[in-house]
UniProtKB/TrEMBL annotation:
It comes from the Bacteria. GO terms for biological process: methylation. This is Acetylserotonin O-methyltransferase. InterPro entries: COMT-like, COMT_C, COMT_dimerisation, SAM-dependent_MTases_sf, WH-like_DNA-bd_sf, WH_DNA-bd_sf. The active site is at H243 (proton acceptor). It comes from Umezawaea endophytica. It holds the Pfam family Methyltransf_2. CDD domains: AdoMet_MTases. One of its GO terms (molecular function) is O-methyltransferase activity. PANTHER family: O-METHYLTRANSFERASE CICE, PUTATIVE (AFU_ORTHOLOGUE AFUA_4G14580)-RELATED. Residues 151-316 form the O-methyltransferase C-terminal domain.
Length: 337
């Protein structure tokens, strides 16, 4: 993108981007898209269906037309092509707005300038708070988005786990727990321990029950840097968490994991990574680093070179890096050295 030219229109779009997010989130929260999936409606009719103010409904619906999420014919509103699947149907991604456009993220990014000045978090309620309520939403709503990478991990480990007698796994900062539970669903002999804060564990337990593996899942509650980890385990998962810490702190967590992995065992890391490509070639990890700046003391998305350093220092071999088309997260699988 070296030849890209910034236009006046692009600047104005960036300045007002938050309005589009707000409109999408409001439409999801009020049930506009699910209601219109049942059929087109005038503003007054939809207002009655959703028990909202007719004037408010009219302004919202016209704005949703303006940004291309609805269309209007005369006085009747309807979904645009694709909206029934993406925002209302069984494969809807609308629930992800709860985590991708969360109030906590908005609050932190409103003071991003101060976070940049200080080099880290300035809001009190943040990713390093033990009672951060966002983690409950993440555990509840991120399960569907985890499916592709959890499936990849299960595919990669299936044959190897068949060679391990009575295999066990530890999922550090398990959140929804889907990495361990997906693997357990494929491997009937696998037992999983999930580690997370006390207010997150009940949600993970519900997911384990939904996947039919609750009887093979135990939980450890507490701080992953301090609580006894138990073990030893054949597999340790460290997923979507190392970007919360600077390289030395992330290495310390990986070293804790190495200490509880059986000889010949494996480590699975999932998260964003950067490469030697320029940021505009792969924007997602760099944009996510901005959130880490606003939410943590020293976190950022680590490069694949940094992961090589961290894994070697913590006692692992260099990782195999796995990618899925259209999925910004990477899966790194390493052996205990």
């Amino acid at each position: 993108m070296a030849d890209a030219v910034l236009t006046r229109e692009r600047v104005f779009d960036l300045m007002q981007g938050y309005r589009n997010t707000s409109l999408l989130r409001t439409g999801i929260r009020l049930g506009v898209f699910t209601s219109l999936a049942e059929g087109p409606a005038e503003a007054g009719e939809l207002a009655a269906r959703l028990d909202i103010d007719p004037r408010g409904a009219t302004i919202l619906l016209n704005a949703l037309v303006a940004i291309g999420l609805l269309e209007r014919k005369d006085t009747e509103f309807r979904l645009v092509d694709g909206a029934d699947e993406l925002l209302a149907g069984p494969r809807s991604v609308a629930h992800l707005a709860t985590i991708l456009a969360s109030d906590w993220e908005w609050d932190a990014l409103k003071v991003l300038d101060e976070a940049v000045r200080r080099g880290g978090v300035v809001v009190d309620d943040n990713a390093e708070s033990s009672d951060f309520a966002y983690w409950q939403d993440f555990a509840t709503f991120a399960t569907a988005a985890t499916g592709p990478t959890a499936g990849l991990v299960a595919d990669e480990l299936a044959d190897w786990l068949d060679t391990r007698p009575t295999p066990t796994a530890l999922d550090v900062a398990c959140g929804h727990g889907m990495y361990g539970f997906t693997l357990a669903a494929r491997q009937p002999s696998l037992r999983v321990w999930g580690l997370d804060w006390p207010h997150v564990v009940p949600i993970a337990a519900e997911n384990a029950a939904r996947l039919g593996v609750r009887d093979r899942v135990d939980f450890i509650e507490g701080d992953m840097f301090e609580v006894p980890l138990g073990g030893a385990y054949d597999v340790v998962f460290v997923t979507n968490v190392l970007h919360h810490f600077a390289e030395d702190r992330a290495t310390a967590l990986l070293a804790r994991a190495a200490n509880v992995i059986k000889p010949g065992g494996k480590l699975v890391v999932v998260g964003f990574t950067t490469t030697d490509e320029p940021p505009d070639a792969d924007p997602a990890p760099y944009l996510f680093s901005v959130l880490m700046l606003a939410w943590t003391k020293g976190g950022e998305v680590h490069s694949e070179r940094a992961y090589d350093r961290m894994l070697t220092e913590a006692g692992f071999t260099a990782a195999e890096v796995h990618r899925l088309p259209g999925v910004p997260m990477r899966v790194l699988i390493a052996d205990r050295a």
